[in-house]
Amino acid sequence: MFIMLFLGSVIKSYSQKTYTFKEDGQIELTGPIFSHKLFKPEVALFNLPQDQKLSADQRKEVRNELAKRFREAKENMEDPELGLKQFYSAIWDEATYNSILEEMGKLLTYLTGTDEDTMQQQSFSYVPSPREIKTLLDENIYLELKRDTVKGFHISRVIFVNNLKRYLLQRLFQTMQADHLQDYAMSGEYKRAWRELEKALQETKDTLQRINRELAPCNVIDSIKAYDKFKKSITDLLGKDSKNAVVQLLRKDFFKKWLWYSQGYLLINPLMATTPDRRYPVTERMGLLTDSIRKKELLSDSAENTLLANLLQTKSIRNELVVPDFKKQGINNYFFYNAANDFEYLNKRAFPKQLDTRAKPGFFIYNVPAKEKLTVSVSSETIKDQSALVQAVDEALGAGALSDVLTNASTITGNWGKISTDVNGFKKVTNPSGQITGSVTTLVDKVSLLTRTSSGWDGFSPLMQQVYWENAIDGYEDEKLWKGGGRDLEDKEYFVTINKRKIPVTKNMLVDKVSFAEASILVIDAANCSSCQYPMDKCLIDSFVIRDRCYPMEYKDTVQLKKDVEAFLVRFKCYFDLQRSYRESLNRLSAHFNDSLLPLLTSYARIFQRSLPMVLTRDSTGAFKEETSGKVPELRTVVYAPELPKPPSEITFKVMSDQVSKIKVIEDTATSKVAIRHKFKYAKRHWLDFSIGLGVTTNDYFTKQASGNLVDISEADRVKPIAGLHIYPLGLLKVDDRIKPNFSRISLYAGLSLKKALDNFYTGVSYDIVPGLRCIGGVHFYKDTRFTISNGQIIDQASAYKKSGAFLSLNLEPLTFVKLIGLIK
Amino acid sequence: MRKFLFSLFIITLVLTACEKYKTIRNDADSKLFIYGRLFIQDSINDNGVEKPLAKEVDVFLRYKNDSANFLNKVKTDAQGYFTFKNLVQGKTYIVSASTETGEGDFKVSFAGESEVLLNESKEDCTPVLKFDRKSQNGVFYTIKDNTGGLINDCEACFFSSRQIWLRDTCSFGLLSIKSNTKGMAIKTNLLPGKYYLLFKKQAGALLLQHKDSIDIQAKGILERGITLQ
């Protein structure tokens, strides 16, 4: 009865084991751990995290990540170097650009503010509304709890739901529906439109190059008409009435609604992942990208890349808990570890130093990351099935020890696949991987937009402009030019004053023309303004003087010279103005191409994500059919139930991890570190065993026997060598060296005396102080004979066992006892 | 099944033995003993003073309530000491012994016994053997003259025939005995029956004579005193 009550209390106390998933999805074990009931299907195996929503810190983190994205988008759109304002003003209008910026600013204020309830009623056209973000933050992140039974194992999983991914898919679905983007296909028209834009960009570059080449020499030619025609064609291509499919497509609101997510850059496929049929061909030209970059970037949105799978995988197995079906797996000794905490041993009781053959140990290592490979090693050494004490006595008495080493090693491997590095499911989305973010940044860095402004008159130095406009032309007046009066110039040295500058006349017509032309446009002192500083002007003057060589200059008198000089300067001015007009026109064209058309076309061409967004469809439940669940748990339970070697043996159990940097060092090997190591003895339990020892009876008793004097009664020896049988109800584990109390060492004892075995019977209870050293207490019965005597003759007699009293005995195993007696003798 | 039957057999055997053990009389059960010495009080062949019986005789031990059987007998040593061992505590034992003294017609039996309630060993058990008047039969005469003086050497003749006895002669008698110096004439171990006795003392010319008739039982000494005339 006592034993039943005891067992009942044990079972009751072990019946409420639960596993709890912490907020980060790791398993935390609570409650008693040695319960078979734990593994019955009707018992709840674990609890979901108490708070299934994002914690306050996580909400803050998500808001910060979203705010960061909005901030980046806003900064990029406002950066004049990137020219996004010009681009978006061109394809939409400036008011739209400002509206987008304004909404981004408001949402940024909302995200960085502390009060989540403000602005809840506001709705925005181009960015997610505060209400949507709040809903996103409030949704459960652990929604599902699945249980499954596979091959005798109960598998329970906590499913993490990436709400941000789901929101992005939802937004993609809605925005595409609104603008019918699902009707667009990767058609020839779409691809031709891009080719047309690419071609226009290239031709614009070429044309601009030609214009600049024409502007390079001091003489320009009249080619404006041809350039104007080209300009018109480009303007038509990019204009509001453009028939280009891409230009038309980009005017849709869809693209305005995703600028916040794509960091301000316009992308056809903002999520950068799509299905193969909507992927922009790698073979298509992308003028701004090199072949290697183009291949890499274009492939990034293909189905061959994990990007799409990653995006569509909105659910992942955060942790997989595996426990065996006790009946099927037969595991009855459970040892628990937490890999997330240096493989902490979780059992309340220390790891046993010995196990019996009934034990079916199971090692359960929780929270093992998918990428972590564990290797298990089980080695064994044959030992004697004795306690250390008995073995020591045996060895001291001459018994040898035999040992064989058996080594079995097995490896736990699993097709764990590639892991996800999501910590809470948001980092990957709100802060895209380096590849994605880096690609955008790289493209922006390489494409320099609107890097300069022009004020016209390219090719003229500012000083030259000043001279020309303020002095040379305006100063051309008679009273200023001629101050010497009309006199014969023959045999005289004279000079001509132009613009208050006196120019000596050399009578070398070419030299003088150059001097006169220079003087007409230069007012600054020649000493400070040598012709070498103005090669363009000098080139133009030289060129004109050569062209003007058919007009002679006669050095007869000042009047004629004045006329000749006047005529020369009129011709020079005419030539100069014409050149100025040509250059001005070309410069304007160049500026238009450079500042307007080329940036615009570049902005189009810079859209490297030209694949069309994937078309999502809903199923009957409202979920997207394309959604998938990750099949590889981020954290898994490694279960190992080793086949133990033949007993008796001493087993060394090791678990090694290939993640050598994260765990405490127990033992180093070449490529791994031992995370778990246990050494224990493994042997059979003994239900019956024999022992020999010295029994001491506490009371006197007498023995009788027929003799010459009829009956001889003598006092028996109270100390007798006895041998007996032990029955261990719980089974004795002999290799258990502990001295601590252990119920399994209690045995029922029945023994006989070695001498006159049938005359003495001992029965009682025995306890092994250590296995093999037995302390016995009980009752001693001896054989008593009654003699009936009559007339000096024994006429009858009968025997029976009679209690003499209590006895105590100290026994050893037979072999040990015999050796000990032999030693004493 | 065989093991079961064998076990059943052994258990039955043990129980049967135990059953007999419970019912059997236990006559030896402890280390208790009775130790003692025989004494004799002989007024026939001796002076009648109680003194140790210095010879080896058998001493018998029996339960008080069982006079028919004795338990054990031991022989005393030459000084008359005896020991009974391994007796049962609480039992009342009777220690008895007998011996014969005298020669010829005066060889008579002496017997005595002691009762011992044995709660602990008895070390001073001293049965006194006295003239056995119960277990032997016969006749014990004390012969005096008319002055009361004891007459020794007086012949006592036994007759079974009254007619012969009336002839006043010892001739043709069954047997004859003589009195000792104490005037005692004893004859034991007679066949039960009626006897006629003729006492004659010839002292010179004086002849003293007396006649008597007795009935002898199977047990018991008939004690009579006579005066010769």
Write a concise keyword list for the protein shown above:
heterodimer, A: 825 residues, alpha+beta, 6-stranded mixed beta sheet, 6-stranded antiparallel beta barrel, 22 helices, 35% helix, 26% strand, rod-shaped, disordered N terminus, B: 229 residues, mainly beta, 7-stranded mixed beta sheet, 4-stranded antiparallel beta sheet, 2 helices, elongated
Query: Which stretches of chain A are low in confidence, meaning pLDDT under 50 for 5 or more residues running?
Result: 1-17, 30-45, 399-487, 529-533
Q: Tell me the strand percentage band of chain B.
A: over 45%
Quaternary status: heterodimer
The average pLDDT score of chain B comes to 88
Low-confidence stretches of chain B: none
Helices and strands of chain B, in N-to-C order? HEEEEEEEEEEEEHEEEEE
Number of helices of chain B: 2
Q: Can you count the beta strands of chain A?
A: 27
Note the overall shape of chain A. rod-shaped
**Share of helix of chain A, binned:** 25-40%
Cα distance, first to last residue of chain B? 98 Å
> What is the spatial order of strands in the main beta sheet of chain B?
3-2-10-8-7-4-5
Percent of residues in helices of chain B: 10-25%
Radius of gyration of chain A: 51 Å
SS content category of chain A: alpha+beta
Question: What is the CA–CA distance across the termini of chain A?
Answer: 47 Å
